[in-house]
Amino acid sequence: MGQNPFNPSPNGPVNPQPGSSGPSAPNSGQPAAPGYGQGPQPGPTPYGSSPGAGQAGAGAYPPAPPQAYGQPAGMPPTGSAPKKKRNGLLIGLIAGGAALVLVIAAVVAVVLVQKLTPASTEPGKATTSVAALRGYLGALAAGDADKAKRYAKNPPADSPTLTNEFLAASVAATPITEIEVVETMDSGTSADDSATYRIGATRVKGHYRLTEIENVWKLDSVVADIDRPRSWGTLGVTINGMTAPTSKFALFPGLYQLGTGTSLLEFEHPAFTLDEPTGLGFSFAGPALTDAGKRAMITKSQEWLTHCLPIQEMNPKDCGMNRALAPGKTLATGTLKRVVVTDAPFSTGTPWVADENPKMITMFSYVEIKVAATDTDGGRYLITESVTTAVGTINGENITVVFTD
User: Fold this and answer.
1) Mean pLDDT confidence for 74-98
2) DSSP state of 201
3) Whole-model pTM above 0.85?
């Protein structure tokens, strides 16, 4: 017979499989172990001990190690150690998540506090570009030029157009209202912000460059620097009623009205709007004659012609008449007579303003004149001459005219 697969030793006790409840194994011819299959069986064996444990004598079962339910014999028991590792990982994840939530909550709280507590808009205290721009535009709306200049990275030079009195008068005539600055998040030390507002009834939009200097935001420029146009010449141009400087000047954003200081001249577009601290929108065009100025030029030219006609000189000064008698001859006193042939002289002329001197008006118009004269020797002269060019000079409400040709 072969060996018992459960106990290869022929003389050793047969160890039944745990949990076996079937009939006894067949007798192999070997004496049975004491107590095996004989007599009344002992009561239930406590978990973790073999039958007969603690009894002396051969055949006693050695104590078996405790086994987990369903675990194969001979395998190490699976305990709670892996559960502890999983629990530790879970606790770590929970703790990390809680920390992240606290960080997010802190950030949200900071943002909410910032929104609930806006940055100061005062000059020198504005810690955001938006706050600085709001403060600057607010100062303009209040007519406070001194405060508005304090928002500049480099304060502008003094100018009669940058005083509190001038700005206040301008704002009183055309208020700055409904200021809305576009919300932006600053990144770095420079920003390009924009705002919309009303200047009088006109809605405008301006763009502004700002720079952060020692945690305070400043506007790169708060005024528009303008060179006086050459087309103004020496004319006493006014800006919102004040005589403009004779060279450079500066203006805050706003609505401005140009004047010429005389009813004889006007700007084609006298009103202009600066919606940001640049020269964009400023009118560099020169003035032109008004209808009153045109009529005055024609009338004064006719008056000057009337003045020139009776002068007893062949070449009267500033009359555009330059005729001569025969060489060596002298005009006999009282013999010169001029008659205008052209009907309504200068009435069809078109006067215009000189390019770089708006005080000077030029008008071309052909005026034919018949001249009769006698020299001291009795020689008689019949001459045809003409006047073609009239030049006027404006001085306030007056205009003087001469003929150059």
Assistant:
1) 56
2) T
3) no
